[in-house]
Amino acid sequence: MNLPSCLPLAALAAAVLAGCAATAPGDALPGATPLPHGERPAVALPVRLDDPGLGLNPAVLAPPPPDWWAGFQAPALVDLMQQAEAGSATLAQALERLRQAELSLRQTQAAAGPSVGLSAGANARRSAAAGGDWAATRSSSLGLSAGYELDLWGRLAADEQAAQATVAQRGFDLASARLSLQASVATAWLNGLASAERLRLARDNLALAERLLAIVQARHRAGVATPLEVAQQQTTVLSQRAALLPLQLAQRQYATALALLLGRTPQDYTPPVHPWAQLQVPAPALVQPAELLLRRPDLAAQEAQLGAAQANVAAARAALLPSLSLSAGASLGSDTLWVLADPSRALSLGASLAYTLFDGGQRQTAVALSQSQRQVLVLGYGEALRAALKEVDDALGGAERQRQQTLAQAEVLAQARRALALAEAQYRAGSGNLQAVLEAQRTVFSAQDGLTSLELARLSAAVELFRALGGGWRLQG
User: Fold this and answer.
1) Which of 45, 142, 146, 208 is disulfide-compatible with 14, CB 3.0–4.6 A?
2) Contact, 402 vs 458, CB < 8 A?
3) What does the alpha-carbon distance between residue 66 and residue 179 come to, in Å, rounded to a whole number?
């Protein structure tokens, strides 16, 4: 047998080894009843997600669209979402973790296949015989070997399934990170706009207080107002000026927070503006309780993690049983250095069965550990699902109640403005007192700030509702 005919036999043996079928995890494992991947632990779902007391009609409410932020009718927000997608370090990290999981899957798949090795060597040796003469020996060799582990009990297949589930989990983690980023961008931008609106109102209130101070000072010069009244209104003016500082700080802090979300340098970033009064509150969205399981990427990630844990249990059980490996090899050898002239030939085929008789309970402990780890994930999934249901309930209730409260606060502000106008007119005419004007001022200032805060809360509740419902994401397949 020469080299061209000897080495291909080993390659053919390697191909035969690669064609050995692997057994699915648990198929031949006594007592193993693994759950199918993606099977959800039993968690009681409510009949409907919304509170009937809110008066919503689930039949006419649609799930959130993928571009849910467009409902705010703010082109600047749409542009911010595009910037966040391109510049977020958080998304880049999640994408890289997905890539790492895919590479790990390739490693696992490669480890389950056959291995083929090539070896070559040359050796020269001089040794002294008993009579004192030196003898020289030379040799050269070339060999090809192949090995393959038969997956009799599904351990290697279980490892691959665990790796596949991890890839799915990382993909869902990426979707969850994207949804969280979108909600954070919208919230930070809306908070910044609200701070700008509150700052504008505070400046208007300062101008109102300064105008009233001029009236009080004029009345004091005319001998109608007392020095106490002048001092009281001056105190109001100073208080309004001091109120500008924390609002300016908050506006800047929201701008820098938004810059970080976009992957921008905070010192060089100025967020886009949009008229506060032109912001629209998107229509509420709603899905059926069972649909929520398919629309939350964080829940899908936990399911995938649970699938990986179940595969790990199957792999640990399979490790209790013997392993069978096949091997094949071919080699050439000669007694010349670096030259395979008239070589000797060898071909080998073999099988080896390995079983650990005693390991101090290490493998049994590994099975128990993997089962415990899976149980932790089962409990965690139930907790995460109940938390998701609570988030939806809170967001729905918050959105509707904030709407009602905003309408009521708008009426409070309208009445406060009328009261201030009447108090100021009476004071100018001499039939009123400054204390009534001051009290009316404080009521207007508080009502204006309260209305802006409620409008922000209503917009933020809409963002939170979209996030709680999955933001338009849906599990495919």
Assistant:
1) 146
2) yes
3) 10
70: helix, strand or coil? helix
Q: How far apart are alpha carbons 349 and 33 in whole angstroms?
A: 36
Provide the pairing of β-strand 115-128 with 134-150.
antiparallel
Q: Kindly list the domain boundaries of the chain, sorted by start residue.
A: 74-115+150-327+371-468
Distance CA 299, CA 289 (A): 13
462, 287 Cβ separation under 8 angstroms: no
pLDDT at 265 over 80: yes
pLDDT of 50 over the 80 cut: no
What does CATH list as the number for 74-115+150-327+371-468?
1.20.1600.10
Phi and psi at residue 473, to the nearest 5°:
-75, 145
pLDDT tens per residue, range 188-237: 999 999 999 999 999 988 998 898 899 889 989 999 889 999 999 999 99
Residue with tokens 């599904």: 154
Burial class (CB in 10 A: 0-12, 13-18, 19+), 241: middle
Kindly state the helix (H) or strand (E) to which residue 333 belongs, with its residue range.
Answer: strand 323-334
Nearest CA among 208, 108, 122, 125 for reference residue 444? 208
Alpha-helical regions (H) of 147-226: 155-221
- The two three-digit tokens of residue 341, written as one number: 């002239």
Query: Which residue, chain included where needed, has tokens 């250095």?
Result: 337
10 band by pLDDT with thresholds 50, 70 and 90: very low
**Cα separation of 177 and 189, whole Å?**
18
C-beta neighbour count of 94 within 10 angstroms: 21
How far is it, in rounded angstroms, from Cα 258 to Cα 254? 6
Look-up of token digits 């070589």 = 343
Kindly report the pTM of this predicted structure: 0.81
Identify any residues that bridge with 331 across adjacent strands, giving them in sequence order: 143, 346
What pLDDT was estimated at residue 288? 81
Q: What is the pLDDT of residues 129-155, one digit of tens each?
A: 666 677 777 888 899 999 999 999 999
SS3 (DSSP) at 118: strand
- Residue 323 phi, psi dihedral angles, 5° rounding: -115, 140
Give residue 130's pLDDT: 65
Structure tokens at 54: 């809110």
CA dist 42 and 419 (Å) reads 59
Let me know if 42 is exposed, middle or buried by CB neighbors in 10 A (0-12, 13-18, 19+). exposed
Give the Cα separation of 46 and 25 in Å (integer).
35
Beta-strand runs (E) in 344-420: 344-354
Q: Is the pLDDT of residue 35 over 70?
A: no
How many CA atoms are closer than 13 Å to the CA of 6, on its beta-carbon side? 18
